[in-house]
């Protein structure tokens, strides 16, 4: 296992892009690295772990916080027991630099050998997540809501809606500026060229919903991450509208499908994606050790 420096981020994004396939798992996507890059390229690189054979990555993980490792494995290696044991050994040894001792969760969708080995070592199944996919071979139904793709000069509108959607507390000027700076770091980072940032507006011109979408290149699944509706404007269909608009943008970028994963307990998000035309796949579970903690 090794950790990259920031100069390798674009290359790792390209590798992850090649691992995205229709019909495959909704696992770690280059868009996940792009969203994390709000913290800057050095911080993003420091959160990545690579398992490689020589110079060729076989698995790439993102430490999305100290207790959660999000993984993608080369599709040709998902049943490779030797690779799975190497990853499991790294995960369980605090000296290696993945997890400290104590509670930990591994998101290893599609990694059948690793999931099996972790289960044999006493790791438990976490709550289910639902992968959802929208085929983009045909045009996406147009939206009725005004939705715009925005640039840096409107970052404040985007982050204000996102904060309301996921935090729901008042947003003071200091926190807003911090979030804007992070958003600008993302849009100037190594993954910015694969993303588009959308805002939906109501009839009064107020920003009511946001999303960012990430392409993995032509003919591959694109990711919707994140999507949220302002708490004062829920229940009016804006989540469905912004999701469909994001999928349409991914189609324009050449994506074969749009993908997302939602917690099984998040009935609101699931209802939104289903109403937008997404088709659910078989639920998947993370593997956890120690006392489980809610995911943000």
From TrEMBL:
A Pfam family reported for this protein in Swiss-Prot or TrEMBL: Acetyltransf_1
What InterPro entries has UniProt attached to this entry?
Acyl_CoA_acyltransferase, GNAT_dom
UniProt-listed Enzyme Commission number(s) = 2.3.-.-
Coiled coil (UniProt feature)? none
GO MF annotations in UniProt:
acyltransferase activity, transferring groups other than amino-acyl groups
**Out of the domains of life, which is the source?**
Bacteria
In which organism is this protein found?
Paenarthrobacter sp. AMU7
User: N-acetyltransferase domain: from which residue to which, for each copy?
Assistant: 145-296
Protein name listed in UniProt:
GNAT family N-acetyltransferase
Q: What are the UniProt keywords, alphabetically? A: Acyltransferase, Transferase
